[in-house]
Each structure stands twice: as C-alpha cells, then as structure tokens.
Amino acid sequence: MSSVQDELFVWSLTRPLWQRAALKLLLLSRPVSTTEVTHLVEICKSGHGLASPFAADVLSKDDLASESDADQPVHLVSLIHHRGVNALAAGQTVEFGPNLTIVYGMNASGKSGYTRILKRACRSRGREDILGNVLNDEAPLAPQASIKYKVGEDDTPLTWSESETASTSLAAVSVFDAHCASVYIKDKTDVAFRPFGLDIFDKLAALCAEVKAQLEREQKAIEQSAQTMPVFADGTKIRGMIDSLSALTPVDDLRELSVLSARDLVELKTLQNVRRDYQSADPAKLSRELSLQADHLATFAIHIDKISAAMSDEAVARLRKMLDARNALKATVEELRLAAFTGDVLPGTGSKDWLRLWEAAAVFSTTAYPGEQFPNVGSNARCVLCQHLVHESAAERFKHFLDFVSSNAQTDLQKMETEIETHFAPVLGVTVNDAEATRCMEQLVSDEVPFVPQIRELLQGSERLQGEIRTAKAGTGPMPAVGVSASSESLKTHIESIRRRASELIASKPTMTKENISTLNELESRSLVGEALTKIIDEIERRKRLGAYRDCIEETSTLVITRKSTELTKELVTDQLRDAFKDELNR
After folding, report:
1. Helix 283-311 vs helix 262-279: crossing angle, to nearest 10
2. Cis peptide before 375 (omega within 30 of 0)
3. Helix (H) or strand (E) holding 151
4. pLDDT of 388-419, one tens digit each?
5. Which of 506, 432, 507 lies closest to 469 in space, CA to CA?
6. What's the rounded Cα separation, in Å, for the pair 21 and 60?
7. DSSP string, 322-363
8. Among 188, 292, 411, 416, which is least packed, fewest CB within 10 Å?
9. Are the C-beta atoms of 544 and 536 separated by less than 8 Å?
10. Distance between CA 458 and CA 397 in Å, rounded?
11. Torsion sign over Cα 108, 114, 117, 122
C-alpha cells in the first residue's frame, strides 16, 4: 500500500500550479501569511492570463518526509554535531540509550538544536529551518553532523548535511515536538487519529477559501466598472452585436464596420437630408425619432445616477477614511524603515519602488538558488542583483532588509493599497464626459430645459473631483472634503414627456421606404460605433477578464480536495487502527 506522502505527491501533480505551491507552503507547519496568499492568487491568475507568468516553487519529492525501507527495527545510537547548527559546540556528542534518553539544560543551551537536526534527517511533520550562530560575526557554515544508528544489530554511520538525500532507513524514526503538535491538536478533524499527512487536505481547503475570497473581491471591482454602451437603432447589425456582446465578440468585425467609405458617407448625408425633409410632414417618422432621442437620454440618466453615486459626499468620505488609514500605516512603516535601514543606504531604500526590486530579486532567487530561502546569505552565496559574494556586512544588511519587508505593518500597508485600488477604481474609472454625454447635453440645450445648469455642474464638478481624488490617491494633494451629486428626476420627467409625444404621433405612416430606413440606420450605427469603438473594445476585454476570473474561482472548489481526503481517510483509518489508538489513549 502506498503511503499518504506518496499519494499526496502523485495527487498534487494533477492540481493547478498555485495549489502545488500552496501544498509546499503548508508543509512548513506554520500559518500562511497574507503576502503568501496574495502570491498564490497571482500564480492562479497567471495561469489564466490575468497576470504575468513566473516560476512557482511547487511541492517536490524532496519536500516530503521520507518513508523507511528498513525491514528491521531502527535505533538511534549517537549524534555528533560538527558545524553550522545554532550555537552548538563542534564535536559535541549526544548518545542515545536503548529505551529512554533525557537531555536537559537551561533555556538556549542547545537542546532544540539537536532536535532540529533529527527532524531534518528522520521522519517529522514539522520540519524547521536550521540557522547558524546568530551571535557569531562570521558567515554561517553549512550544517553538518554525524548520526550513528542501528538497523537490527548492525551499526550504520551517516554523515548528514542539508544538501544530502535523507537516509530511507532513518525514516523509521519519528521525531515529535511542540512544533509538530499543532498538526494533531490545533485543527478539528472527523476522526480521533489521522495518519501523518492527512491534515494537509483540510488546510489546503481553507487556503482555497482565502484565495477565492481575494479573487472574488477583484472580480467584483471589475464587474462594477462596466462601460455604458451607446444606443444603436433596432434591427441593425451593430445593435445585434452589442446586444450579444461577450468575450468572444470578434473585434476585427467591429473595426471593419466602424470604417465608412467615401460612398457610404455620401449616402449617409443624403439619407439624413431626406429624413429631415420628411420629419415635418411625417408624424410616424418623427415619433420614431423622438423614441430614439428618449432612449439616448434614458441611457444618459443612468450615467448621471452612476456618477452621482460614485462622487457623493458619502463615497468621498469612505475614500478619505481609507487614505487616512493608509497614511497612518505609511508613517508606521517609515518609522520601521528608519530603524531598520541605518548606516550608508541609498535614498529611497524601503520605498514602493525598492519593494518591487526586492520582490523581483526574490522571484529570481528561486531560479538562482532553488530551495534556498531568500535572501541567501550562506557560504559562497552571491547577491542575485550584483552577483558579488555576500560578505558579512552585506549579510547583516540583508537581515535588516528582511526584517523590514516581513513586518506586520508592511503587510498591512500592502493589503490597504490593494483595497484602495479596488474601491477607487469605480470612481476613477468612470468616463464622465464622453461623446454620448456631449450629444445628450446638446439635445437638452436645444430642448431648452431648465435643469441643464445642474447637470453641467455635475459633469464639470465630477471631472474636477476625479483629478483631486487621483492626486490625493497618489499622495501629492489633499483629499476633497465633499463630493458632488445631482438628481436625475427632472431629466427622467423630460424623457417621459418625449415618449408621450412619440406615442401621440405613432399613428401616422412613414414616407421613407423601409429599405432607406434600414440603410440609414445601418450607416448611422456604423458611424456611431466608430466613435465608441475604444469603449466597446474595453468592454469586451472586461468580459474576457471576468471569464478568466470565473475560471480562477472554479479552481478554488474544494470538491476534489474533499473527495481525495475522504478516500485516503477511509483507506488508511481502519477500524483496527481506531481501536489500537483508543486502547493507547485509555492506558
């Protein structure tokens, strides 16, 4: 029967790349940080074209606890430390008795250092990184120790180092300490005892929920940035394409339709002149014109409501509160930066641009030093940027850099920046005064309605407010104290009056032929689509992104994870195993 570890690795090969990276993080037996969750989200998005592709550090055979191939009992005999493990003395030996060995001493005397060696060499769920002597000014040496063990009655010596493949015989020795205990007591499970490794499935399912929540927040922001489409005449080819607009709508077809030839332009002008000639004598035609005018103004009213909601006093107050919170976090981070970056450092160290440089270096480090923690300051390690050897002073500086980047305040600031981008997008992304709005304003001026000044003030005030909010978001100006808004009720009343006029004229018969009407509608629609082509293409791209986000969110489904967990639990947690475990607890 294959082990849980084997089953987990084989099953991981069928999972998306981000879940394979998540499995590797979960094997570290520590909480996955917010930054790491965001990193998993980016890996997921890159698989669907929503982010740039980059290498992911995924689960490998070397990350799993080995399984013993020894068919006889395995006993530890001794452990000799040579170098590189905490502050342990070189040549110091721990000998193990045949039944029980007690190692005692004061705090920080080195007891845990020997345990860390055994957890790396033997079978352990909660492996830990091994650090050198932090009090030693010299560059840390690569950890090395000698382990003597018995397989049956035969003594076997082993020179252990982190770079060497683990002994399969030592996998029969299980190492358990407080760091490992959380696997068994922290999480709720459906059985009293779960074989080594099954807890990973529960944690992966929980991590899927975090990734899903972040994806859904980003998806919602995109859903709220829908473009307002122009109104095209019924029955036209463009109207059919806009009504059925999707991520699959061919952009090239739209571009082709948006270009009118010289002949088309002559015909369009001729038909428009004919229409004007007939309007005064053709009530039915005038009725349709009024209905189309009302449709345009109805779309404009929706636009007014959307702007008023995005630019209201309440909306501006919410955005101002977020910027105040960000500024407070920035001040905290700046204090940390001044404390961490002492000495001769370049101006701007610790800034947003510097953080992007650090993150890029961390990604490249996974290629330059696979399996090594970034920054790698070990023996003969080189800086991934300048590629010079990392000497003592550089290693100390890297430590300060890492402390700063890993701080809670920095993580909170990054999270706040993401939330600001999400909440500011509907305000800064809306086009206040486009060609359609200009046409509607011209129509309202022509109609001599009394509420034109209020709408003009809203449009002008919104554009001014957008600039002030954009400046405040960039940190180069204050956030506006109040927003702008205007009621669309007067406009809607005007629209209803236009529709009533159209209804009163509907009984008349048109004088233009159906063929001319159809041709004119097609040409005007094509002319209009040329003006709105960028907006339409942006809407297609938006729907493509929404489709990609749906694919990403589908990958967070825990159904496959639950099914595999249940399958292995039923296979491995037998009645015999449950009874044996209960007997052990009752002793």
Report:
1. 110
2. yes
3. strand 144-151
4. 888 887 887 777 777 777 776 777 888 888 88
5. 432
6. 10
7. HHHHHHHHHHHHHHHHHHHS-SS--TTTTSHHHHHHHHHHHH
8. 188
9. no
10. 53
11. negative
